[in-house]
Protein 1
Amino acid sequence: MNRTQLIENIRKKGSFLCVGLDTDIKKIPEHLRANKDAVFEFNKAIIDATAPYCVAYKPNTAFYESRGVKGWEDLDRTVEYIRNNYPDQFIIADAKRGDIGNTSSLYARAFFENLDVDALTVAPYMGFDSVKPFMEYEGKWVILLALTSNPGSRDFQFLNDVTGTRVFEHVLETARKWGDADNLMFVVGATQGAMFSEVRRVAPDNFLLVPGVGAQGGSLEEVVKWGINRDCGLLVNSSRGIIYASQGEDFAEAAASEARKLRDHMTILLSVHGIV
Amino acid sequence: MNRTQLIENIRKKGSFLCVGLDTDIKKIPEHLRANKDAVFEFNKAIIDATAPYCVAYKPNTAFYESRGVKGWEDLDRTVEYIRNNYPDQFIIADAKRGDIGNTSSLYARAFFENLDVDALTVAPYMGFDSVKPFMEYEGKWVILLALTSNPGSRDFQFLNDVTGTRVFEHVLETARKWGDADNLMFVVGATQGAMFSEVRRVAPDNFLLVPGVGAQGGSLEEVVKWGINRDCGLLVNSSRGIIYASQGEDFAEAAASEARKLRDHMTILLSVHGIV
């Protein structure tokens, strides 16, 4: 999916919500667990219930890998289900991959040819040749970790050089030479609050994928206040707050209701900023 | 496998060689490709041929993921084959994972419970909570990226802070507070040459996993000169130079011959340093 289509979908739906499909078999409702396709059936119900309110889905690969071959089958089927039934959804594999160039090409093959998602999250530590192979696919996106939502983000991302430039700013500045706003987004955690304005100083046009609203404590209003640009430029993710909204048989309706609430809030914010 | 056993195996075999099972189906000998288990059959032959000369195997997950569910089956079977037939081999999944704490726990489940490897390579960018979950498994190891072998290592790993400390040194120093020489190794690329002495200044006791000898241009002698410690403290990896030594029907013998050459060179170096 290209940038124009993504922006159009955001405008049409009044939403920049991404639903995180972090489906842990140990956390899905009791009544589904006996089903041999429990994870896929759970995802299917969540997707059908939330699709009207979001523009993107983001399965995190760890949840699927943790179940080995069966997990990869579920991931495959989930992506295929979204593709076939909701072709206007942007699909992100949250895999945080990255390796020497030769090897990153194989991850690109895995995610952009076989699984056929729109975007992949990539870790920046290994530098340009670990990222470039993902940019060689027309219409596909790299979403590079810049400032993450977790407590450990303080360990290395904020280290300062002699000019006062921090590591995450180097990542933003350097990576913008490798790609552009049409194939490169950045991960910036919702918990980083006012740091969004520093990110926007360096990367005014790139879309930002924003995890950490909800369970991790980030605020949607703060994110929008500092992070929005004229195209919206934000995909705000919620995982646990939506998919585990209820542990009962009403889990899908409860997920829909949480997604709808976030969409309604987003529509107001988009309207305040003159985007819808 | 614990540190004592690993050191004992190195002494016994006169080798600190790790064979990288970076098996690309497009690069294995013609006569095997028609076999539906081509990758597993190739790995099995390589393992049987090289096991006398090495102490570790390192499948890089990208090569398996690039083939989807079938690839994960091959990885599973390969690890199981090594476990069952060569229980003294240290098995490393070169996956370069890392995510927020909650999610890293699931990667730990994938690699340390299901796949049951001894060690996993982990990317440091997200900090302590992305690394700690892997350290909660008794007898398992984190191998943290510090200074990688690729050209992109120059982009962020060498950034200097106000005190002249570089990012990779911060990674070494900080990570040593999370683990110790019994559960934490570092990746340092063979192409980094004299930088090994800087690494050893900060991390004198930790094992270093060293890729980049052979195809990437690193020198075994340089690595040993600057990187060896009293326990050896090195696992030097070779992938392409061994597993693709021949494209013909003699691929396994050719691999054995390359591995033996490296082992012979390593035995001499270990002897020079009084370790065997």
Note: The longest strand of chain B covers residues 90-97.
Protein 2
Amino acid sequence: MQLLSETVQGYLANSSMIRRMFEAGIELRKKYGPENVYDFSLGNPDLPAPARVVDGLKAFAEKADQPFAFGYTPNAGAPWAREALAKWLSEDQGVSLEAGDVLISVGAASALNAVLKAIFNPGEELLTFAPYFVEYGFYVSNHGGVLSTVPSRPETFAPDVEALEKAMSPKTRAVLINSPHNPTGAVYTLEELKEICALLERKSEEYGHPVWLISDEPYRFLAYDGIEVPSVLPLYRFAVCVSSFSKNLSLPGERIGYAALSPLLENRAEFMAALTLTNRILGYVNAPIVGQHIMVAALGASVDVDIYTRRRNAMAEVLAEAGYEFNLPRGSFYFFPKAPGGDDKAFIAALTQECVLGVPGSGFGCPGYFRLAFCVDEDIIRRSAKGFAAARRKFA
Amino acid sequence: MQLLSETVQGYLANSSMIRRMFEAGIELRKKYGPENVYDFSLGNPDLPAPARVVDGLKAFAEKADQPFAFGYTPNAGAPWAREALAKWLSEDQGVSLEAGDVLISVGAASALNAVLKAIFNPGEELLTFAPYFVEYGFYVSNHGGVLSTVPSRPETFAPDVEALEKAMSPKTRAVLINSPHNPTGAVYTLEELKEICALLERKSEEYGHPVWLISDEPYRFLAYDGIEVPSVLPLYRFAVCVSSFSKNLSLPGERIGYAALSPLLENRAEFMAALTLTNRILGYVNAPIVGQHIMVAALGASVDVDIYTRRRNAMAEVLAEAGYEFNLPRGSFYFFPKAPGGDDKAFIAALTQECVLGVPGSGFGCPGYFRLAFCVDEDIIRRSAKGFAAARRKFA
């Protein structure tokens, strides 16, 4: 008897490629020793959490024997945590947010799902620029929507707003952007964001329904060479920012994130009531209470960005020396070079033979490229040079 | 412009009754002082977490400055946590479970949603006995399914298996039970469970697809007068148990729960792969890492059940003295008495006027009754006697 739903049966059949890669990594570590495997496949931050995280946890532990210490919080988060988050976001993003404008979530993933559930009618469309994070497709499908993609501009991976306009229709319920960008390292400029917002404002009027701009920003803190990461919240009434503390506080396992509404939206209270409801009925209920305490204790703290800068520069040297074509990331911790030979899966197979692990661009809706995550020690990056060079030579 | 999806717009319109009650509670506390409001409306455990929870948290805090201390865990949970949970569940429920048979989840709610997502095709039906926890309807609807109810047996709220059989059709994908039961305090006997399992086995064969038995068991630890809470896992191959540590460890805010499969299921690995996937793509990603550490440290610990026993007895005295008709709960921490006068909403309004808060049975698909949660101090229960008596007299 078939155990699973048709949809999930299909998902499982298609996910076997990624699993095979994961298993190949385990095999390589067994065969050659973990120190000889150069794993750039995962965005799992290796830096320890900042001291304020640990201190916040210890302070909470001291009062954890009290009644309700681990009690439910309201579905949108504990009032004191929402208050603190709104204050910090206001300063950080140059907007004026109140506690009622933010929802604390089980990581950015739950915030994004809560937003999608609140706005999507069956068959409506979410547009995003390719390449893109593969989970987006599952998330919009969870709520009856459909993901469609628009190519980013070649070379720079900047948003192609003309192509976006051409792709839009009255079925378009939302546009999802992600800057600093996974997997390309692109950072959208203020001009580009303004152009997107102007288009969406015009289309919202034309269609008679909001075209939401969902901005997924877990790498907001991580931009290089002093460039700015502009906020969408002051630019557009139908903008929602979703993010998490997984990367800047090295907290991915505790699942703590948020959604924030634009102060330009008139009916924010209604929209927040909907998010609070969807956050509840999707089974998130409330963000983990220990995580809420940690977040408040550590707001504004960050892992050391200089470490990532040095890693980026080391990886750029390794790739340039071996003759790869790539864009220098302006933010996030990913390179997205061209796959030598053009076939990203074949190239990743060759790279794996050299004990270097990356992800084919096909996994991000962008064949012909591959992704390298540089949230690993600089020494590992430097020692991987030989493997990168050897794999490159095979496709010379 | 309408901000929300049609579905969520409809949900919000209907949820206003519960919100009005919640607001009434706030008003009453302001007007009469919090000590004069007797709030039995929420199942939010008031007992502090057991010492092993606090000790486990402190031990984790001591090593929280290490890299990856708060890192992602695999989507089904950290291997060491799954191992420990499987061992404990095996002992607790008299079955033989391995790490691969359990998934650690963001509370029972996420486990339940992950299971529903894995098995439901659009339009298929979930059957449950009324009264029932209102969130079940949202959860099954999240995944395109439909909730239908079968009345429990009158007076005892035992499962009516004949009525269940009559309600079943090839569209029935799952039956959901909840014992010890919210809101009635009923505990299903081994005989009753066997009868349900035999029916579902027969129907699975007849329909050519599994009819899953989902057993929601957050109150498994809380049964009175020495009665046993039998496990469904050894009884039926398509049984899945979902539960949490919210109540027995007073941990509801940290969101830590699990799903466990029956060892009788042959393709458990396939089903667990599906649950691992749905747990990921629904945006839960992994159960909170701090919660996983706490759970392992405190497996087998429990809040003091004697305290609940005394509260149950106190509440029974109060209700009996005031002339209410009710069943003595055999488990969980709820009474579900008949609403004097028959109109549960009118009665709850009268009770609220006496500063006593409960929930109308209509909120559980069972008008004519009301729910009282006795996870509050015994003193509050005793002092509420006057209010219960006064409200009762109005409907004499």
Note: Chain A has 14 helices and twelve strands.
